[in-house]
Amino acid sequence: MGIYIYTWEYMLILSPVFGCIKEFCACVFVFLFFAAFFPSIACPSRLADTMADESFQQEFLTTHNIYRQMHQSPPLKMSTDLNKSAQSWADHLLDSGIMQHSGSGVGENLYCMSSSAPINLTGKEAVESWYEEVKDYDYNRPGFKGNTGHFTQVVWKETTEVGVGLATDGKRVFVVAQYRPAGNVNVAAYFERNVLPQAGRAGSSGTDSHGGEKNCTLL
């Protein structure tokens, strides 16, 4: 009887502790569930920090259209569905840490930057980086090349819509641009009519490059 009473009193003392442990485990389970299936609810600050906001989108679009006007191409319009698709892929690239194309069937330019200091990217840096390839494009020999494909997609005359996504953890940033109709149709005649020299310039090679942060792109 003495042992029974001792054990019962012991359990009475520990029962609040067991209750706290059960509540803690339940909270952890709920958080992990929402983090897996509803990340915007579980981690709202991360989502807010990694999306391309309206200001970023507008500067991204404006920078495209400045360059396109220089190359006799009509302005692009921002596409809501391409924005959603590009944002989804940018989030994937940040999570995986691997630069690869989405294979979505639209035109696509990718950009990434890494830094030990916090990164504050505006809407123009990625587009400027892609446009730098103009210096290597030969209008007298039109066609696709690995070192000019970002530039040619930016100014591709028959492209009418663009969408953009941005994802960052503060030290790495990924920018995804998606275009419709896709450019870089690998036929010389298509390049000849879609990638035009700057107005008033003879067709040869491009311009001086811009300075910028260390970055990476992928074709």
TrEMBL record:
Q: Which SUPFAM superfamilies match?
A: PR-1-like (SSF55797)
- The name under which this protein is listed is Golgi-associated plant pathogenesis-related protein 1-like
The question of whether Transmembrane helix is a record keyword is answered with: yes
Keywords from the named record: Membrane, Transmembrane, Transmembrane helix
Q: What's a Pfam family in this record? A: CAP
Q: Which family does it belong to?
A: Belongs to the CRISP family.
GO cellular-component term (any): extracellular region
Checking SMART domains in the record gives: SCP (SM00198)
Give TM regions. 12-38
The SCP domain is annotated at 55-187
Region spans: Disordered = 200-219
